[in-house]
Amino acid sequence: MIRAFVFCLSSCLCLAGTAWAQAQVATDNAGIAQLRALDTLTGAVTDIDATVGETHSYERLMITVQECRYPKGNPNGDAFALLTIKDIREEKPRFDAWMVASSPALSALEHPRYDVWLLKCKTSEG
Q1: What is the pLDDT of residues 7-52, one digit of tens each?
Q2: 8 Å CB contact between 107 and 117
Q3: Are 63 and 55 spatial neighbours (Cβ–Cβ below 8 Å)?
């Protein structure tokens, strides 16, 4: 009986903690996503300022930023962007999802040669 009570209590606390952790944070949209690309074959690193709504090319990759968001009032905060990355030699995109600046491995581009990750969102002021 006590075990059942403890189990129910701990389950309720876990669920309450999960709901609290999922509280939404107010965000602003930015016009530019600052990305960093790495050619793993040559070691060359390139920073890309990709305008939202436009397609940018990097080597064999076509990168489209659909949205770039950041915590309201903090453009250097934990940015996240909706990206589509396509290798020009392939039909389907290699990446089509949200990428989080603070956790690039959480949702990463799977490509044998190139790595691309989000650094931050930039407003028109910089």
Answers
A1: 444 554 454 454 445 567 788 788 999 999 999 999 999 999 999 9
A2: no
A3: yes
